[in-house]
C-alpha cells in the first residue's frame, strides 16, 4: 500500500512538474515572440510634396536620407490622402477612418482623442509608445506613454513644446529640436525589452518656410524653372479659378517671402505676424538672418518688379526657402536611420516616411494644398522593413493614409477592428496581394475658409478622376490622367467620355456607400463647421 502510494504520489508530482514546465516554456515562447514583434518609427513631415523628394525623380533637390528608405525598402508612386489638410489628415492616419467617420473634417473643430487609434491598440498590447513633434490635434494625446508635441502649427525658432501636458520653450531650430527629442527618447527613455512605436513628426516644410541658418545659401546658385502650367488660365475649370492660393496674387511678401524691411516700407496683410516669428530669435540668430536676407530685401526694393517678372521672382524665393527647410528634415531622418543601424535595431524596425498631404510647387501657379488635384491629393510614402520588404520595391497600386493604422496593427499581430476603413499594405509590399482596391475616395470640407477652396468630393481610379464641387457652386470635373496628367482639360462634357463618365458616377456612388458618406452627412458637417467658425470669430 505504501509502495503504491509512493508511486502514485511521484506520478502526480511528475505530472504537475510537466504542466508547470509546459506553461513556463509556453509563456517564454509567447514572451519571446512578442519581444520579436517589429518596432515602428513613423516619420511624418508637413506639406512635403512628393516632387521635393529626390527618389521621385523630379530633380528639384537632393534628399539622400529619405531616399535611403526607398533604396532599402519600398517607394509608393500612388500614395494619396483622403482629405488634403493638416489636422484631418492626421486624424485619418491615427484612426484608419475617413474624416466623416472620425469627426475631424476640418482644422477648426476639435478632435476626439477618446476614440480608438492604432497607438492605443499597440500600447494596450505591450508596445511602448511615443509621439514627438507636430500633431496639430488639440488636447493631450491619448495612446502614448510619452508625448512632446508642438502646440498648433508650432514655431520654427525657439519653439514651444508640450511634454506630457507641461509646456516649455526650447532654444534653437524646430526641426533639429524635434529630432533631438526623438533621439533622446530612443536612447534614454524607452524600455529596451519592449517593442516600440515612435511617431516622429516634423513641422517643416509648413508655411512660413523659415530655414535653418546652415542652409540659408543653399540654392542661391539655382534658378528654378516653373511648371509648364504655372500661368494656368483655368479654362473649363471654374471651381479652380476661384481659389486664393496663387503665388503671384496671394503669396505675402513678408509673411511668406521674408521681405521684412527695417524701414517698414513693405506693408502687407501678415507683416505683423511674421514680425512676431522673427522676434522669437536670439540676437545671434537675428544677426545671421539679417546678414542673409537684408541684401535680398534691398535688391528686391530696388527693382520694383511687376507682372510676370514679379510672379517668377516670388516663385523662386518660395522654392528656395521651402526646399531649404526640407534639407533639415532630411538631416534628421539620417540621424534616426543611423541610430537604428548603430544599435542593431535596423533589421526589426519598420520605418515609414510620409507627409500629411502633398503640396503645390507652382503647378497651376499655386502653393498650398486642399484640392483633389494630384499635387495635393498625392503624398509621398516610403517604407523599409528589411525582414519582409525587398530593397528597391516599387508599388504602383492605390494606397491611402487610411491604410497606415491597419498596416501597423497587422505587423504587430494586433487584431484590426472591423470599424477601420483602411487596408493593411503588408501583403502588397511582400508581393502577395492577389487583389487590391481599384478606386479611392476623397472629400474636402473647409469652405468658406482660408484659401477659398470649394467643398468637394470625388473618386479616383488608376486612370480617371471625377470631382464634384458643391455648396455655393455646382460643378463636375472629369480627368483622363493618362492623357492629361497635369489636369488641364476637364472632359466631363466631352461626348467621347460619356461612357467613362457614367462608370465613374457609378464608382463614386459605390465609394460613398462603402465608406458611409452622403449628402445628408455633408449638410450636417457644414452646419457644425459654420457654427464652430462663428464661435472662433
Describe the structure.
By secondary structure, this protein is α/β, with parallel strands linked by helices. It contains 16 helices and 16 strands. It has a ten-stranded mixed beta sheet, sandwiched between helices. A hairpin with a 5-residue loop joins strand 15 (464-469) and strand 16 (475-480). Helix 5 (118-124) runs parallel beside helix 13 and helix 6 (174-189) packs parallel to helix 11.
Give the beta-strand count.
Answer: 16
Low-confidence parts, pLDDT < 50 over ≥5 residues? 25-32
Total of DSSP H or I helical runs spanning 4+ residues: 16
Structural class: alpha/beta
Helicity, as a percent range = 25-40%
Radius of gyration: 26 Å
CATH class, named Alpha Beta
Mean pLDDT: 93
Which second-level CATH architecture applies?
3-Layer(aba) Sandwich
> What proportion of the residues form beta strands (DSSP E)?
5-15%
Fold-level CATH name: Alkaline Phosphatase, subunit A
Distance separating the two termini:
93 Å
State the oligomer.
single chain
Write down the domain tally.
1
Outline the biggest β-sheet: 10 strands, mixed
Anisotropy-based shape: globular
User: What's the CATH H-level superfamily name?
Assistant: Alkaline Phosphatase, subunit A
Strand order of the largest sheet: 7-6-5-4-8-1-9-10-2-11
Amino acid at each position: 500500500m505504501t509502495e503504491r502510494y509512493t508511486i502514485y504520489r511521484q506520478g502526480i508530482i511528475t505530472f504537475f512538474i510537466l504542466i508547470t514546465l509546459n506553461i513556463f516554456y509556453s509563456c517564454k515562447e509567447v514572451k519571446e515572440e512578442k519581444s520579436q514583434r517589429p518596432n515602428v518609427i513613423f516619420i511624418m513631415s508637413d506639406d512635403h510634396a512628393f516632387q521635393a523628394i529626390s527618389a521621385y525623380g523630379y530633380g528639384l533637390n537632393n534628399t539622400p536620407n529619405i531616399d535611403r528608405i526607398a533604396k532599402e525598402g519600398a517607394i509608393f508612386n500612388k500614395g494619396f490622402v483622403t482629405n488634403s489638410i493638416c489636422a484631418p489628415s492626421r486624424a485619418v492616419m491615427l484612426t484608419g477612418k475617413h474624416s466623416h467617420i472620425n469627426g475631424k473634417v476640418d482644422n477648426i473643430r476639435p478632435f476626439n482623442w477618446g476614440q480608438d487609434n492604432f497607438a492605443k491598440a499597440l500600447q494596450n498590447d505591450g508596445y511602448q509608445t511615443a509621439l514627438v513633434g507636430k500633431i496639430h490635434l488639440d488636447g493631450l494625446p491619448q495612446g502614448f506613454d510619452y508625448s512632446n508635441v508642438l502646440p498648433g502649427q508650432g514655431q520654427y525658432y525657439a519653439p514651444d513644446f508640450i511634454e506630457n501636458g507641461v509646456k516649455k520653450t526650447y532654444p534653437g531650430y524646430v526641426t533639429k529640436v524635434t529630432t533631438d527629442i526623438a533621439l533622446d527618447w530612443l536612447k534614454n527613455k524607452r524600455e529596451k525589452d519592449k517593442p516600440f512605436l515612435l511617431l516622429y513628426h516634423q513641422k517643416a516644410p509648413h508655411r512660413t518656410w523659415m530655414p535653418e541658418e546652415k542652409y540659408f545659401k543653399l540654392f542661391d546658385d539655382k534658378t528654378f524653372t516653373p511648371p509648364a502650367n504655372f500661368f494656368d488660365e483655368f479654362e473649363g475649370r471654374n471651381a479652380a479659378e476661384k481659389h486664393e492660393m496663387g503665388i503671384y496674387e496671394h503669396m505675402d511678401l513678408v509673411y511668406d517671402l521674408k521681405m521684412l524691411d527695417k524701414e517698414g516700407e513693405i506693408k502687407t496683410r501678415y507683416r505683423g505676424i511674421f514680425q512676431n516669428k522673427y522676434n522669437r530669435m536670439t540676437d545671434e540668430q537675428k544677426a545671421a538672418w539679417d546678414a542673409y536676407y537684408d541684401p535680398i530685401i534691398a535688391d528686391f526694393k530696388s527693382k520694383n518688379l511687376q507682372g510676370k517678372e514679379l510672379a517668377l521672382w516670388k516663385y523662386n524665393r518660395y522654392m528656395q526657402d521651402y526646399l531649404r527647410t526640407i534639407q533639415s528634415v532630411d538631416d534628421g531622418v539620417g540621424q534616426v536611420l543611423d541610430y537604428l543601424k548603430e544599435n542593431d535595431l535596423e533589421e526589426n524596425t519598420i520605418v515609414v516616411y510620409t507627409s500629411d498631404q502633398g503640396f503645390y510647387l507652382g503647378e497651376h501657379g499655386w502653393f498650398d494644398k486642399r484640392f483633389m488635384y494630384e499635387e495635393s491629393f498625392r503624398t509621398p510614402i516610403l517604407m523599409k522593413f528589411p525582414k519582409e520588404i525587398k530593397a528597391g520595391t516599387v508599388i504602383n497600386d492605390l494606397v491611402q493614409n487610411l491604410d497606415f493604422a491597419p498596416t501597423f496593427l497587422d505587423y504587430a499581430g494586433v487584431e484590426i477592428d472591423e470599424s477601420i476603413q483602411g487596408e493593411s499594405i503588408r501583403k502588397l509590399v511582400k508581393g502577395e496581394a492577389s487583389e487590391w482596391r481599384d478606386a479611392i475616395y476623397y472629400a474636402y470640407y473647409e469652405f468658406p475658409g482660408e484659401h477659398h477652396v470649394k467643398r468637394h468630393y470625388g473618386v479616383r481610379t488608376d486612370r480617371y478622376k471625377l470631382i464634384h464641387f458643391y455648396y455655393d457652386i455646382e460643378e463636375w470635373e472629369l480627368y483622363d490622367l493618362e492623357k492629361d496628367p497635369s489636369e488641364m482639360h476637364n472632359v466631363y462634357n466631352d461626348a467621347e467620355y460619356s461612357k467613362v463618365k457614367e462608370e465613374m458616377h457609378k464608382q463614386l456612388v459605390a465609394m460613398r456607400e462603402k465608406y458611409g458618406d452622403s449628402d445628408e452627412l455633408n449638410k450636417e458637417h457644414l452646419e457644425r463647421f459654420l457654427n464652430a467658425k462663428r464661435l472662433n470669430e
